[in-house]
Design a protein that fits this description.
By secondary structure, this protein is of the alpha/beta class. The chain is built from four helices and ten strands.
Length: 218
């Protein structure tokens, strides 16, 4: 059986230990937040195409911070992604996934194998780490259009499209904005700064700039 294509030279799949200790600034500036952040997977949360570069079976590595495939290649989230997922949970922001990968089962397996580290509390409760899969409240992973993904996300969550912010690396997927979703184009993977820029764009589009939220609201 021939070996599948190598990863691109620019790929960086190693999860480093020195993660930033701060969250997105928009999570603590007392202005409104989207009720759900939705992420594409390939070249958004991780730097590879799961249906092209990854060959099962997968095995955990380095306490499940990485995965190794049949050919010994190592895969992981972009560096700041685990912290962002933790930040969302601690702030009460829902997290969704919308991916059209041709290998949906393998993508789900990757999310269930990789772990997200402990949050600010570092103990039982919201800060406890666990499978990345468990940090997603809604998941739509199947070949098809992103508008179909969002139609299902909206139906299952009960949220308005206007309450969702989508991060994706492909400009063609901006067609979800026809539904009312705000999409922010990701160029080099999701970081806290990218989340901040996306949230600010969502606020601008929905008229939330400068509108502080009341105590107890998001």
């Amino acid at each position: 059986m021939p070996k599948r294509p190598p990863l691109p030279p620019s790929t960086s799949t190693t999860l480093v230990e020195t993660l930033p200790t701060y969250g997105p600034t928009t999570f603590s500036d007392k202005l409104p937040l989207p009720k759900m952040l939705v992420f594409d997977l390939d070249y958004t949360l991780w730097s590879f195409w799961v249906d092209t570069h990854v060959t099962p079976p997968l095995k955990p590595k380095d306490n499940n911070s990485k995965a190794v495939d049949r050919w010994g290649e190592t895969f992981a989230f972009y560096t700041e992604v685990p912290g962002i997922l933790t930040d969302c949970r601690e702030r009460g922001v829902l997290v969704g996934a919308a991916s059209r990968t041709m290998a949906p089962d393998l993508a789900r397996e990757m999310l269930k194998l990789l772990v997200v580290g402990k949050g600010k509390e570092g103990k039982e409760g919201k800060g406890k780490g666990g499978r990345a899969w468990d940090y997603f409240d809604q998941v739509q992973i199947f070949p098809g259009s992103k508008t179909k993904h969002f139609s299902l996300l909206q139906k299952q969550s009960g949220l308005k499209y206007e309450d969702m912010l989508f991060f994706d690396d492909e400009a063609r997927n901006k067609n979800v904005e026809e539904l009312g979703v705000v999409m922010y184009l990701v160029k080099d993977g999701v970081t806290r700064d990218v989340v901040d820029r996306g949230v600010k764009e969502w606020r601008k589009r929905n008229g939330h700039e400068g509108k502080a939220i009341a105590n107890g609201d998001k």
